[in-house]
Amino acid sequence: MSTNNKEIFKNTPVDHEIHELIKNRWSPRTFSDKPVSHKELQVLFEAGRWAPSSNNIQPWNIVWGIKGSVAYDRIMSVLVEFNQNWAKNAPVLLLGVVDTKTPKGDDNYHAPHDLGQFAANMAIQAQSMGIAMHQMAGLDYEKARKEFKFPDTYHVATAIAVGYYGGELSDVPEKLQDAETGERSRKQQNDFVFNGDYRETGDVKE
């Protein structure tokens, strides 16, 4: 793996050929010192804006901050220490927040799924621009909700580090460096794709 502030590729051992934007996307903990502009963030948010959502409710909300700003420091303050140790490398930090209620006041069980689609759209758009996104669950959800004054029905679901691929391996704690250089892996399709009942696997036939 190269860490010379240029585009970085990790080997992705796919079983079936997929689009290069998906194949080459990964979640680094090091980032180039090249800034991500406000305009580039608007492009990422626009990609997320056009994600599908249940009943077109669009329950997502995004909090963002550029490194050096008060908003960035506030987002950093709600991350767990483990993530603070490397997220400080990112030029941009985001929070993904969902309203857990529908406009009618019913529980919106689909809201986290919809936020996931928003983030996936952003991630593919970012990849097309040479920008990496590392999504993380390690944050104090209640502290974050209160810090940014969201109503009680809102849930801060994720934090996201954003920046151009690059940086130095020494930028991350030693115990995390293997993850930056290691082989990518995923479960096999038969572990999660079922042609009927749970665990009723079957190869897809052409």
Automatic annotation (TrEMBL):
This is Nitroreductase. Residues 175-189, 197-206 have a biased composition (Basic and acidic residues). It comes from Nonlabens dokdonensis. Residues 175-206 are annotated as: Disordered. Keywords: Oxidoreductase. The lineage of its organism: Bacteria, Pseudomonadati, Bacteroidota, Flavobacteriia, Flavobacteriales. Belongs to the nitroreductase family. Gene3D superfamilies: NADH Oxidase. The keyword Oxidoreductase applies. Residues 22-64, 81-164 form the Nitroreductase domain. It comes from the Bacteria. InterPro entries: Nitroreductase, Nitroreductase-like.
